Amino acid sequence: MALDTSTLDRLPAGVTGPIYDRSKLTPGIVHIGLGNFHRAHQAWYLHRLMQQGKALDWAIIGAGVRPGDAAMRDRLLAQDCLTTLIELDPAGTSAEVTGAMIDFLPVEPDNAALIAAMSDPAIRIVALTVTEGGYYRDTAGALDTAHPDIRHDAEHPDRPRTAFGAMVAALRARRAAGIGPFTGQCCDNLQHNGAVLRRTVVGLARLSDPELAEWIEAEASFPNAMVDCIVPATGESELALARSLGLDDMAPVTHENFRQWVIEDDFCAGRPPWEDVGATLTDDVTDYETMKIRVLNAGHQVLANLGELLGVPTIAACMTDPLIAAFFRRVETEEIVPYIQPVPDRTPAEYLDLIEGRFRNPEIRDTTRRVAFDGSSRHPGFILPILRDALAAGGSVQGLALTEALWARMCAGTREDGSTIAPNDPNWDALTAAAQAARDRPESWLEQAHLYGPLAQDAAFRQAFSGWLARLWSDGTRATVQAYIDG
Question: Which part of the chain is the Mannitol dehydrogenase C-terminal domain (predicted)?
Answer without folding.
Answer: 284-468
